[in-house]
Write a structure and sequence with these properties.
326 residues, alpha/beta, FAD/NAD(P)-binding domain, 2 domains, seven-stranded mixed β-sheet, five-stranded parallel β-sheet
């Protein structure tokens, strides 16, 4: 097994930023990504538009030029892909990390393809792969999905959208405009307050005029082959249904963090332990970067405020290497 200075787990924007910084520092590094480049962004809805402006999505001061102030998914894919290819970053795609163990001063990283040995490890795996389930009968029916891609599929279908966040609102509006009969099921009393400001009036007006039906303070009771049963303040309601989009958010892979020894807070937030000044976890030389740092609070960290993690971590690693040589 070849020894590597640094293994970066996750090839999203923050993992790429860490790779760029490691290259500048002259480290022997490798990024391991279980899917394509920026896998999470690739799996976003086809027409998704970011809340952030293009300059706030930039990494390493590389300009991100987009047609609009708020770039769309396809522009982001092009931007990050070009960074990887033009900088010839050392990245292995479609390779899944299964375990990380430490013995003495080295880590052994086991993937679905091979083993690696490294002095330092950065976990930058995001949170988009594990949906928050609603845990009701029928959730695992083929007609239920926790991911939304393209509204064309739902034309002339009866679609229930569970949730009131950006992803749920975007799906509801797009499906409605492609000819779906859309019903939103919202746990709280209103559409989410963090919904994109230019989209929120649109969804509220469509609901007010009756183009999209919405049940507030409601929970799904059961999903059937041809219907969905909802608990509402006025009792149970059953509506005809062809497809369910359960867009109730996502969470980091906490089991993986626990498996490799990272300590999590004892409350429901499950914050991973790390040093704010270095991003180093309770395991020496193992670092966290990006949205995974927020535990269940996945809205706290995002590209524009966590890209600094790359420089913070590599500064720590560089200082440690200097101390070794001293």
């Amino acid at each position: 097994m070849k020894h590597t200075d640094l293994i970066i787990i996750g090839g999203g924007p923050i993992g790429i930023a860490c790779g760029l910084e490691a290259k500048k520092k002259g480290l022997d590094y490798l990024i391991l990504e279980k899917g394509p480049i920026v896998n999470s962004l690739f799996n976003y809805p086809i027409n998704m538009q970011f809340f952030s402006s293009s300059e706030k999505l930039e990494i390493d001061n590389i300009p991100f030029i987009s047609k609009e102030a708020k770039p769309k998914r396809n522009e982001a894919l092009e931007y990050y892909r070009r960074i990887v290819t033009s900088n010839n970053l050392n990245i292995n795609l479609f390779e899944t990390v299964q375990d990380v163990t430490k013995a003495d001063t080295n880590f052994t990283i086991i993937t679905n393809k091979q083993k690696y040995v490294a002095t330092y490890v950065i976990v930058a795996t995001g949170f988009y792969d594990l949906p928050n389930t609603i845990d009701v009968p029928g959730e695992h029916l083929p007609k239920v999905s926790h991911y939304y891609k393209d509204p064309h599929f739902y034309a002339k279908q009866k679609v229930a959208v569970i949730g009131a966040s950006n992803s749920a609102v975007d799906a509801a509006l797009e499906c409605y405009r492609k000819g779906a009969e859309v019903t939103m099921i919202v746990r709280g009393p209103e559409i989410g307050r963090r919904v994109k400001y230019w989209v929120k009036p649109d969804i509220e007006n469509r609901i007010a005029e009756g183009s999209i039906k919405a049940f507030y303070n409601a929970l799904v009771n059961e999903i059937l082959d041809d219907a969905i049963v909802i608990d509402t303040p006025n009792g149970k309601v059953s509506i005809d249904n062809d497809y369910v989009l359960a867009l109730t958010g996502y969470k980091p892979n906490f089991e993986f963090l626990r498996k490799i020894g990272i300590e999590l807070s004892k409350d429901e937030k499950l914050y991973p332990q790390y040093d704010d000044n270095t991003m180093e976890t309770n395991i020496e030389n193992l670092y966290l970067a990006g949205v995974i740092c927020g535990g269940m609070d996945t809205h706290v960290w995002f590209i524009e405020n966590s890209r600094v993690h790359a420089t913070t971590i590599l500064a720590s690693i560089t200082e440690k290497q200097k101390q070794k040589l001293a």
